[in-house]
Amino acid sequence: MEVMRIKNVAKNFGGLKVLQDVSFCLQAGEKVALIGPNGAGKTTLVNVLNGLLSPTSGNIHLLGRDVTKLPPYERVALGLARSFQVSSLFPALSLFSNVLMALYGVQKSRYQMFRSFTGYPVNNQRARELLESIDLWGKKDIPVHELSHGERRRLEIVLSISSRPRVLLLDEPNAGLSSAETSNLIQMIENFAVGTTTLVVAHDLDFIYRLCHRVLVLYYGEIIADGSCEEIQTNQKVCSIYLGTEVKDA
Description:
- The chain has a domain at 2-90 and 165-241: Rossmann fold (3-Layer(aba) Sandwich).
- Helix content is 34%, strand content 26%.
- It is built from nine helices and ten strands.
- It is globular, with a radius of gyration of 19 Å.
- It starts with a strand and ends in a 9-residue tail after the last helix.
């Protein structure tokens, strides 16, 4: 089942063409990597997909609905979630408050302005379950800025998944993580994002090949390859342009 379709998307900043005629589809439940050298337009594409940027041309469909002109919060309501390359947590607030705000922000009750967001027992229980699942319940009352980089990454991912999205966009989720922390992150994504269509932007090919089964390669704003990990590893154009190597004929 197709859950997201990107058709002929372009994004210009003045005379600079960052994305050019980008088209691809995401199917239900698949985990897809988006790779490419620095400056290829990966983060710009993710920003267009979640509504932070409007495309210069082209269309984006989410679950059969044209969301090209919808703002981010409306896309979230339809089932799209996103984590950022740079931390988007509230550093001065406690872990528990960060989780409660994430849960509250995707519910219709957020419009009830005269009721505290802590006054929802279901959310309180869900917040505890989420923090326990990533072994951070014991730190629920400390401010986020006291967490390690790896702990903040785990918290960001679980907040992205807390709304049970249909499509999840992850921008460099393992940036700055150790090998052990990356392995834990992979396990966490696999456990929490079961059935969720996931698009992952990353540079770490080992991380990508362990998590994803399909890879999109972006180069100077264009998709130059779309295939399985095995196909991408042996793609002559990808190897010469992105990996900087050359595949020899057998």
